[in-house]
Design a protein that fits this description.
Layout (H helix, E strand, L loop, with lengths): L1 H55 L5 H84 L1
């Protein structure tokens, strides 16, 4: 009886391990199938584009084909030039605005320093003027008392 129970438990354990392996294999297989499907879809799309292009140009003469390609290349170059101009313009705006921000920070710092310096000078003048006035007053009183 104990042997039968051990045998049944080993079979159940074996089945659970096999089920785990099956699930893991199914997950990796499904991920591989998804990437393969995506790749085959891209290849199929590329092939369809090539077929469509060759069908469109089938009845063209060589000169017409040349001029059509030149137009297409010109449009691509124009789009590239506009993209480069956009990038340069944004870069220059960013640089200019950065300089403006830096100047503003420097100006506000300078303004703060000047304000603090003026306050300190006024306070220093006030203290010294009071001290000088007090000394003058005391010396004037001393001369009057004599």
């Amino acid at each position: 009886m104990i042997e039968q129970e051990e045998h049944r438990l080993s079979i159940e354990n074996n089945e659970s391990v096999q089920a785990g392996h099956r699930n893991a294999h199914a997950e990796t297989t499904s991920a591989h199938v998804e990437t393969t499907d995506e790749l085959s879809r891209k290849i199929l799309h590329t092939m369809e584009c090539m077929e469509r292009r060759s069908q469109n140009f089938l009845c063209f003469s060589r000169k017409r084909m040349l001029f059509t390609e030149w137009r297409r290349i010109g449009a691509r170059q124009k789009a590239f030039c506009y993209a480069v101009a956009n990038v340069l313009e944004k870069s220059l705006y960013k640089k200019g605005l950065g300089h403006l921000n830096e100047q503003m920070r420097d100006h506000s710092y300078t303004t703060t320093v000047h304000r603090i310096t003026k306050r300190f000078a006024a306070r220093f003048f006030r203290v010294n003027a009071n001290d000088a006035f007090t000394k003058w007053k005391l010396s004037a009183l001393a001369t009057v008392d004599q």
